[in-house]
Amino acid sequence: MEEVKKPLLTPRQIGMAAAFGGAALAIVLAGITIPIPGTVVVTDPREPFTTIGSSLTGPIGGLVIGFLAGIAEPGIPWASLLAHIIGCMYMGLAYKFVYNHFPVLWMKLAGWAVLVLIYYFVVVVPLFVVGIWIFYPAETGGEAFLPLLGALEIGAVPEAVLTTIFTTVIMGILPERFRRPVW
Fold first, then answer.
1. Cα distance between residue 21 and residue 122, in whole Å
2. What confidence score (pLDDT) does residue 41 get?
3. Domains, the chain, ranges and CATH?
4. CA gap 137, 9 in Å, rounded
5. pTM for the model
């Protein structure tokens, strides 16, 4: 009996990735931003769309969502693309692990919260700083790497906490069939 291979992207994944990525892009294009004090970087409310969307659509959907979420970043798109594409691919892989290995909802939600915090503080913010250093060295304001990383990590705390709480509530109230990864 021959095994049927799943396609790399299903129509459902493509539609979901386009919808979540499109929502993130719309937020950026609308200019809904919040400056991070002491840095040249602004933040915005796109991350619920990037984290939930890429978690449900997997790493390939995350690549699409990360691209759409990062491409229109004002002034520093390459740094944003680096951070969001890798961050969204991470969420796609990591969420499937949490979903498949934690048997009850409260464990999945606790795992989710940890994934979102890792997304911010281990993946996206550090890669954003790396991207600024590589692609936009003039935008560092002459600040050394670690102080800039520290300033952005501290500046990201409110957004990370709010996004973690908000998305955990959303994932908790979604019916099981909408919480399940589609890849």
1. 22
2. 63
3. 11-178 (1.10.1760.20)
4. 36
5. 0.90
